[in-house]
Write a structure and sequence with these properties.
heterodimer, A: alpha+beta, Alpha-Beta Plaits, 2 domains, four-stranded antiparallel sheet, two-stranded antiparallel ribbon, 8 strands, B: alpha+beta, nine-stranded antiparallel sheet, about 15% helix, globular
């Protein structure tokens, strides 16, 4: 069975130098899609990605990451769209990379589909009405 | 109809009373209406009022003459950030009295260089300790626009004032909390609102830019526009034949008035055959009692990397005095063109030119094509709110509580020589 999970990897400064994504693809046959990352030489880092692969491959990949001391958590950062505060301008809909925030036409009403959201935070920054929030 | 009785060349017809004028088989009743006649119908609850969206299909079904005879008022609406906005206040005198040389509301400075205990708070004003763009792009979380929203939300607002003290006004310092209901006077006065048309912002550079047109991604990654298009007030009266000084309007949820033409009002902008300007053009200075207004139609906004502003809701009724006026209100998103302007290079440098014109129908579809590239669009202006405003205004008029006013003076139009000059640095 194929799984598709959004996860956050956190690793210490020693692991930053290792090509872990390469191993996940090559050795475990997983398809990582990096959404966001902050990785700097000699520093701790984190990486948010969506991983797709077969169940057993995924389990083996997780085991591999754990063996390196990398913590894997489900992505529980969530974007919340506060409808009451939304001015229905639609500025976010021109920026949202996955069309999680989209405009119905011709009514031009904004709607949000949390399942499509990859928490890139583009909307959080750009919303003039501060109607999108990041929840942890 | 083959010709228009009220086109410019034939305007002399309007000198006559053209009731019962017969053309072919159609007997046209009441080709002209007056403000008084329309108001009489409003008072009796008999006025026929439709929105600028509804009128399009109605005229298609019934024809120009019949529609002009039937419909009394077309209502328009717009809602979007309008930076040239703000409010005058009178706080009342404390004991002992005070001149209030400098004033802050929730930490945002208001201009107090007018009479004692009066001040003007501008929508784009920021607290003095706001980091602005020191760490770019700044988030601009709170400013003048937000104070105005808090006031109309009837939230308590902190008032601080200082003064040098005079014999008549001895107090030098004050700190208290007020709500809008404590104020003697709160007048929203916006020197430049309701732009007739506007640029579409795009960015041709290879870096993300943060503008008053929103976040513009590199290499024409997106394009932002800001107009209600076919619902927008000045789009439905492109030569300002009915909207003038004294026109009663919907403003921020309350009743307001057109005070003057707005700053940067530029009627001589290039226009299409139907009179629709292909760029900015007309603007309005509007005013109204802030105490009547509602936060749904007066919202503080934060534009990342740019600053704060106030989103203002405006609705203007257009009396269908004759067929010419009706025909202007039939404008559709397909008829309205906006210039796509590069906010990465040409705009900031004050250079003319654009990357082409697109229609609001294209902009509202969610994507436009620029130089062969498909570009996603976003809007700063809210179409659902614009529709809501036109609808509310329609209900106000239909229910007889909102009468139309004839302008005491028309706004400068294409006959007048008004142009906007750049500032020459000497």
């Amino acid at each position: 069975m194929t799984v598709c999970k959004k996860v956050v990897l956190r690793f210490d400064s020693k692991i930053v130098e290792k090509p872990i994504i390469y191993s996940l693809i090559k050795d475990y046959g997983l398809i990582p899609n990096i959404i966001k990352a902050d990785i700097n030489p000699h520093k701790e880092g984190y990486l948010v990605m969506e991983v797709t692969g077969e169940n057993d491959q995924y389990a083996a990949g997780v085991e591999y990451l754990n063996s390196l001391g990398i913590s894997i958590d489900a992505l529980d950062e969530k974007v919340a769209w506060i409808e009451d505060r939304c001015m229905q301008c639609g500025l976010c809909t021109g920026l949202c990379p996955t069309h999680a925030l989209k405009m119905s036409r011709p009514s031009m009403q904004v709607s949000f589909d949390g399942d499509k959201c990859i928490v890139c935070e583009m909307c959080v920054k750009s919303c003039p009405a501060k109607a999108v929030e990041l929840h942890f | 109809m083959g010709f228009n009785l009220f086109s410019k060349e034939k305007r002399f017809f309007s000198l006559f009373d053209l009731k019962f004028w017969e053309i072919g088989r159609d007997t046209i009743m009441a080709l002209t209406k007056t403000y008084e006649e329309i108001n009489e119908k409003i008072k009796k609850g008999k006025a026929v009022v439709v929105t600028a969206e509804e009128i399009i299909d109605l005229a298609k079904e019934e024809g120009i003459s019949k529609t002009a005879a039937k419909v009394d008022v077309v209502t328009t609406g717009t809602f979007g950030p309008m930076c040239s906005s703000g409010a005058f206040f009178n706080f009342g005198h404390p004991k002992p009295r005070m001149k209030m040389q400098k004033v802050w509301l929730n930490g945002v400075p208001a201009y107090a260089g007018i009479a004692a205990v009066d001040a003007y708070l501008g929508a784009t004003e920021l607290p003095e300790d706001d980091p602005c763009n020191k760490v770019h792009p700044g988030s601009f979380k709170y400013g003048g626009g937000h104070v105005l929203e808090d006031l109309v939300s009837r939230k308590p607002v902190k008032l601080e004032a200082i003064a040098y003290g005079t014999d008549c006004y001895p107090r030098k310092k004050l700190e208290t909390t007020i709500t809008i209901d404590d104020l003697n006077y709160a007048l929203l006065f916006n020197p430049r609102n309701a732009y007739q048309n506007y640029n579409v912002g795009i960015n041709t550079t290879n870096k993300t830019i943060y503008t008053y047109m929103g976040v513009l991604r590199p290499n024409m990654g997106n394009a932002n526009y800001s107009s209600a298009g076919q619902l927008s007030p000045l789009m439905n009266d492109p030569y300002y034949r009915t909207i003038g000084i004294g026109t009663r309007i919907f403003l921020g949820g309350g009743v307001g008035y057109v005070a003057w033409h707005g700053s940067q009002h530029s009627p001589l902008a290039e226009r299409t055959e139907k009179g629709v300007p292909k760029g900015g053009a007309g603007t309005l200075a509007v005013m109204g009692d802030l105490k009547q207004m509602r936060p749904e139609f007066l919202r503080g906004v934060s534009l990342i990397g740019y600053g704060v502003s106030l989103a203002v809701g405006i609705g203007i009724p257009i009396p269908i005095l004759n067929e010419e006026i009706l025909e202007y209100t039939l404008v559709t998103d397909d008829d309205i063109y906006a210039p796509v302007v590069d906010y990465g290079v040409s705009y900031p440098n004050g250079e003319p030119g654009n990357l082409g014109l697109v229609t609001y129908a294209q902009l509202k579809s969610g994507k436009i094509e620029i130089q062969g590239k498909e570009v996603r669009t976003g809007s700063l202006s809210s179409y659902p709110k614009a529709k809501e405003i036109a609808q509310i205004l329609k209900e106000w008029i239909t229910s007889g509580k909102f009468l139309l006013t004839q302008p005491v003076q028309n706004l400068p139009s294409i006959e007048d020589d008004i142009t906007i000059k750049p500032l020459v640095i000497r």
